[in-house]
Amino acid sequence: MNSAKKSFLTAGAVVLSCAAVLAGTLSRNRADLHLSSPFNFFASTHSLVASTANTAPGAGPGDYYEFVSELLKRDYVDPVTDERKLSTGAVKGMVNFLEDADSRFMSPEEFKVFAEASSGKFEGVGVELGYENPSNKELRDALPPALLPFSQAKASDSSTNLDSDGNLDTGHLPAVVIEAVIPGSPADKAGLKAGDSLKSVDGMWVMNPYEINNLAVISLAVKKEQDAHKSQPPTQALTDLTREYLDIRRDLRKKLKNSLTPAKAMDRLTMGTSGDVTATWTRGQTLVTTRLAKSITPEEEVSKEPNGAIAVHFQPGVSSKLKSILNTGPVTLDLRENKFGDPAELKPCLELFGPAGAYGKLVNNKGKAATVLATTEGAKPRNLKLIVDRSTAGVAEMFALALQSRGYAKLEGPPMSHDRNLVETFKLSDGSGYTLVTAKYETGTELARSKS
Amino acid sequence: MKQTLRAAKFLGLLVVLFICGFSWRDVREGRLPSANTLASILNGALAENMPSPEQEFLQNFNRIQKDYYKTVPVDKLTYAAMEGLMASLGDPHTMFMPPQLANDFNVETNGSLIGIGCRLAPDPLGAKAVSVFDDGPAYHGGIRSGDVITGVNGASVVGADLDDIVKKIRGEEGTTVKLKIIRGQKSSPLLVAVRRARVETPTVSETKVLPGTHFGYFQVATVSEPTARQFDEELEKLEKQHINGLVIDMRDNPGGLLDTAKEMLSRFVPGDKSVVTVRYRDGHEDFVTTDNGVQHNFAYPVVILVNEDTASAAEIFSGVLQDYKLATLVGTHTYGKALVQNVIRVVGDSDQSASAKVTIAHYYLPRGPSHDIQRKVDDEGQFISGGLKPDVEADFDPDSMVDVTYGDLKTDTQLQKAVEVLKQKTGG
Predict the structure, then answer these.
(1) Containing H/E element for A109?
(2) Edge-to-edge strands of the sheet including B245-249?
(3) For chain B, which end, N or C, has fewer CB atoms within 10 Å of the first or last residue's CB respectively?
(4) Catalytic residue among B323, B355, B412, B417
């Protein structure tokens, strides 16, 4: 072997050795961070805001995980047979910690229903339900007339549990409201509407912040009356108030004995394909009672309405369906009853109605530069009308705003839901899953400069 | 042939280097290389579809930390994850305690801490001393109940958060803290110096002979390290006043140490009698029995007040006396916690560490396993069964508008019932 060949071989060996080390490090990163791809439906959208990550130095989450799971496997009173239960529990703990109505953990059963609904198959009575944390004003507006005179007691009393936003602390208990009604579903036939707030299911009271607020309001009024007439014989007003207070408290206590948590109530209405369910709702100050049969309601991505408008639902595949039926003339799209939406369909749908370019931005609250929502292909603008209302949410609302902001569409109808969250979906290996708000949509494309 | 061998050796070297690169992160973070992760990457097919539970946790941790649209502090997210992990077992007593909670828990079970020895409550002007412990540093420094602390070491604490004020007041044992206090309506504040020392929190309190009776009363707040001795001391105070009945108030007592409960029970029960039988998951049993030669002569009937928040060691104390018919239980059913927990510092062992509380065994009262008191709840967490059943049921009127003060015969209707029971037993 001559010396040139030898040195060539040595050099090759060194390069290969380095490559081996590098390959090892990279595969480790991959193993730790990216082994499971996000839930298939939305895999492509993850790149909208996704980033790679490193664990913190020192005692990282992995150290905690190992310590605690080993401890439980060794010492817990019952043998821990399924370690995946522990890791799923950890993910659930994290998602719940966010206390975000649109970032929600779902059990395998719930996630299955969610995934089917995302692709246009709705189990249960055919509604899309969501949590709503009412503002102080909304709470006051919902007070029964008899309690209205006392609502001021709350606003002026600084000793009550007001959170930093000035809302009464109802223990983070949300109300369950209809966000969209699936056309042709049992709920649709029964006349339910977006915005209806759930009161009871199958005779069981659904815990909600409104009624708990009622109790808070009257209890404060009693206290105020007591303080105003300290060490005097009770006034007639106090006697009346006290009677009212006790009535409400007794009523609430009775209801609590036969009650459902918001999550359980949701499941009863949106899961299952057979049997009946009775539910009562409030619409403003009126009470609506419905008896509904559960079934599967399919929802088309795109369907023609009698008046010529095209109803659009942002399920996976909606853009290609839409493309196949569009000509170049004026068109009206009906964007109502849209809660679930596949973020991956946003860009391809925009590309059907406007030229390539920027259509707003996806921002986060981390003080970092936002991402511009830009299309790479495009079409000639046309006379485009979009029918919207409060059931137009999420991807549908972003779509409408994006086109409106560039002047490529006219919106028709009442204000939309104001839900402009980019929500991505992730599945865990045991079948459970969660949604995560990864950005908020804003019109305008100028990016705020990072402060750092 | 020789060349083939050399090539094989080189290939082997490459594999070793790959593994080195792969494990680099573990080495850098000072732990053993992760064999699981390595195994999963070598077994490619498995790895793509089924990450190990730990990998799955880490992936989702990183995703939420990086991709959620708001900033999520790494430590808080880690604690939330551990809380969820431990909660997944469905046992309310197996739980993760972040550092702050872990510390509070520690103080509660030890029954002692370095401080000035007084209980503080929020006040618009700073912190109000609601109770000053007898013979404690604050007492010796001249602080009395009702004083309001408005300054600490020359800095004003008016309007400050109680937790922050407490942090400022606490410090090393033997050092001095200067406090500015306001007493009553006096306009000029006082300056006092208090030497920080180890103080014992009073867990047995509100000792008194109930007005209009000869019945003694005290509250036991927790069952912690000093409780048995404090129990003896308070009992002695009462017996000097010639009581002929005793009410031990165990309401809202979350329990604490089994050893302390045993010590207290040994005052009532003769030696070598069963307190509890502890059964571990491998089936082996520990028998906890009373101590010899420390029995006290109770020449009068004893009533224990209990409620749904009477749990753990407090429940053992009450339940064992009920089993041996040495006390009458008055109130509502108790919590029903027939499980023993162990508390372990998680990742490191310092005051800043978090803790994990883990259920490690079941226990049974002398009444035996067939009368298990384990709490059962429905899907919504509502109580179904379990706990000790009181001998005499007494609950508060849910429609009453009266603010109840425990130990106040005028408002405390459960205490009224206890007195009634004692009167029947003493024929008075």
Answers:
(1) helix A108-118
(2) B204-209, B215-220, B245-249, B302-306, B328-331, B392-393
(3) N
(4) B323
Q: How far apart are CA B151 and CA B141, in angstroms?
A: 15
B425 is annotated as an active-site residue: no
8 Å CB contact between A384 and A84: no
Residues of A in contact with B19 (CB under 8 A): 24
Q: What span, in angstroms and rounded, lies between the C-alpha atoms of A308 and A329?
A: 13
Annotated catalytic, B337? yes
> For residue B322, which of B298, B305, B343 has the smallest C-alpha distance?
B305
DSSP code for A230: T
* Residue whose entry in the numeric block shows the structure tokens 């002007």: B125
DSSP state of A226: H
pLDDT tens digits for range B45-90? 444 568 899 999 999 999 999 999 999 999 999 999 999 999 999 8
Catalytic residue among B128, B168, B180, B337: B337
CB pairs under 8 A between A and B: 263
Helix intervals (H) in B240-344: 258-268, 312-323
pLDDT digit string, tens, across residues B116-148: 998 888 888 889 998 888 888 999 999 998 899
For helices B74-87 and B53-67, angle between their N-to-C axes, nearest 10 degrees: 140
Choose from B37, B68, B357 for mutation: most chain A CBs within 10 A. B68
ipTM over 0.95: no
Q: How far is CA A54 from CA A32, A62, B21, B69, in A?
A: 9, 12, 16, 18
Is B323 designated active site?
yes
User: Choosing from B224, B266, B274, B312, which is the catalytic residue?
Assistant: B312
Contact A76 B401 (CB under 8 A): no
Interface probe with A: pick from B36, B43, B64, most Cβ of A within 10 Å: B64
Backbone angles phi, psi at A128, to 5 degrees: -105, 115
User: Among B13, B82, B347, whose Cβ lies nearest the Cβ of A17?
Assistant: B13
Beta bridge partners of A177: A130, A197
CB contact under 8 A, A25 and B21: yes
Kindly give, in sequence order, each residue whose CB lies less than 8 Å from that of residue A24, ignoring residues fewer than 6 positions away: B17, B18, B19, B20, B21, B22, B23, B24
- Do B142 and B123 meet the contact criterion of CB atoms below 8 Å apart? no
* Cβ–Cβ gap A429/B69 under 8 Å: no
Residue A345 · residue A395 · CB < 8 Å: yes
For residue B1, give the 3-state DSSP assignment: coil
Residues 6+ apart with CB under 8 A from A171: A212
Paired sense of beta strands B245-249 and B302-306, if any: parallel
Phi, psi of B203 (to 5 degrees): -105, -15
Contact between A310 and A331 (Cβ < 8 Å): yes
Q: How do the pLDDT tens digits run along chain A, 452 residues long?
A: 567 777 777 877 777 777 777 776 666 655 554 433 333 333 333 333 333 333 333 578 999 999 999 999 999 999 999 999 999 999 999 999 998 888 999 999 999 999 999 888 999 999 999 888 888 788 888 887 777 777 754 443 333 443 333 344 445 688 999 999 998 999 999 999 999 999 999 999 998 888 888 888 888 888 888 888 777 777 888 888 888 888 888 888 898 888 898 989 999 999 999 999 999 999 988 999 999 999 999 988 999 988 889 999 999 999 999 999 988 889 999 999 898 889 999 999 999 999 999 999 998 877 665 788 999 998 999 999 999 999 999 999 999 999 999 999 999 999 999 889 999 999 999 999 999 999 999 988 776 544 33
Calpha distance A283→A194 (Å, rounded): 9
> In B, which residues are within 8 Å of A67 by CB distance?
346-347
3 state SS of B98:
coil
